[in-house]
Recover the amino acids of this structure.
């Protein structure tokens, strides 16, 4: 019925064209968020927003979907709310039959690898053939290394994995970043490639769910790469503080260079508040939300602030430990960018700002800390006025990232996709 209705109300356009409207589903651990987008001249205009509480549908161990019908119901509620809103901003109700799905970070694994070629003749200009061969070699090494990293998951869970995304993250000639090295001279040519993998069973479950909802799946997107792509200065440490975890992305050149997930999020903050103040879970959650909105009066405010200060000290210690594992040989970017519903908790920004980062890790200078804002995503325009805080960053990032292009249509991306993958990469994303 959804598919039939969408053909009546502008949900698709003629074959071979990008649809005039599309839905975005952002699958969180506590909420499903839905957007209805009008796609117009390279811009995504949001004409509908919906949210639905998400009953537990996944396993944080490796992302298996435990209850597909439950997830589908949550997605359907969010979609219907977003579609109902479109009547206020369009001539009629819009029910797209195409959808983009942003996958939870914890069900994917992302990694970037750099390979340097010491050129025998620095005066010779880089040719297309030389670049292609280095790209292939870099991708083979990257996939082999990524395969070793995830092999224990496949053995323990008997899971098949497949390549979700691959792209060129960076190209340098003698340490200088270039868009393309063709025609350049130099001694050292460095290629960095970024890959994201996902469990085949999870991806098949998402495809089955969208089919059940009567939607054509346009694309699935990695939350890691989507967040990395929207940073205005293309370098930073992005922390998405969700209900179950805090996802950390070290971003370089607009790509998710290193990623990790810390099992501390909004639920952990609530549990600590309940235990410290002797409250029920429901009362502690209500108090936490009121505190986030500045609605707790003295002297209760002092008690909440003290309790939150202790849990935030533990949280920032986990962030430090995670960054220590991720930093590698290069200095860390000097900017923290926060998003996710948990980032609005008072004290998080100041805790990060006051932490002795320069004494603990390799930063070029003391990091700046900022809350990401929806209006900073220039390619996504909100006509509804409903995308107002940090919890809305993730679905907007997915929309911006997917609509910006596909690596399979990029010449360098096509080379990476064509590289034969190791046996661990099976399923539809197996060897090309």
């Amino acid at each position: 019925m959804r598919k039939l209705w969408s053909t009546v109300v502008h949900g698709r356009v003629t074959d071979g064209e990008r649809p005039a409207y599309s839905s975005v589903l952002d699958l969180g651990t506590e909420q499903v968020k839905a957007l209805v987008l009008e796609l117009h001249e390279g811009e995504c205009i949001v004409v509908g927003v919906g949210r639905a509480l998400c009953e537990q549908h996944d396993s944080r161990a490796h992302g298996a979907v435990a209850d597909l019908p439950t997830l589908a119901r949550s997605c359907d509620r969010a979609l219907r709310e977003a579609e109902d809103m479109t009547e206020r901003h369009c001539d009629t109700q819009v029910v797209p039959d195409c959808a983009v799905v942003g996958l939870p970070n914890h069900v994917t694994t992302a990694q970037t690898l750099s390979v340097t070629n010491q050129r025998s003749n620095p005066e010779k200009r880089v040719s297309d053939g030389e670049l292609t061969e280095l790209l292939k070699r870099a991708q083979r090494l990257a996939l082999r290394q990524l395969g070793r990293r995830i092999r224990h998951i496949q053995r323990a869970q008997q899971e098949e994995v497949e390549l979700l995304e691959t792209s060129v993250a960076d190209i340098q000639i003698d340490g200088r970043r270039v868009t393309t090295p063709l025609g350049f001279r130099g001694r050292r040519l460095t290629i960095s490639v970024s890959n994201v993998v996902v469990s085949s069973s999870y991806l098949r479950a998402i495809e089955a769910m969208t089919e059940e909802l009567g939607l054509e799946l346009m694309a699935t997107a990695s939350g890691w790469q989507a967040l990395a792509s929207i940073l205005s200065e293309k370098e930073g440490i992005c922390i998405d503080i969700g209900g179950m975890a805090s996802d950390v992305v070290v971003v370089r050149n607009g790509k998710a260079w290193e990623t990790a997930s810390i099992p501390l999020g909004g639920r952990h903050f609530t549990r600590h508040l309940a235990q410290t103040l002797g409250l029920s879970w429901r009362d502690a959650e209500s108090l936490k939300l009121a505190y986030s909105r500045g609605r707790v009066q003295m002297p209760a405010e002092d008690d909440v602030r003290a309790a939150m200060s202790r849990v935030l000290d533990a949280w920032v210690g986990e962030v430090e430990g995670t960054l220590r594992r991720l930093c590698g040989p290069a200095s860390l970017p000097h900017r923290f960018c926060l998003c996710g519903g948990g980032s609005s908790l008072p004290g998080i920004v100041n805790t990060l700002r006051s932490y002795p980062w320069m004494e603990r890790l390799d930063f070029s200078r003391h990091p700046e800390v900022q809350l990401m804002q929806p209006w900073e995503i220039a390619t996504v325009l909100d006509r509804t006025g409903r995308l107002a805080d940090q919890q809305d960053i993730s679905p907007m990032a997915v929309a911006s990232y997917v609509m910006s292009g596909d690596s399979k249509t990029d010449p360098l991306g096509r080379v990476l996709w064509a590289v034969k993958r190791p046996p661990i990469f099976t399923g539809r994303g197996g060897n090309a």
In short: Residues 128-157 form the longest helix (30 residues). The chain has three domains: 2-106+203-228+377-404, 109-198+410-429, 232-371. The chain has twelve helices and 15 strands. The longest strand covers residues 161-173.
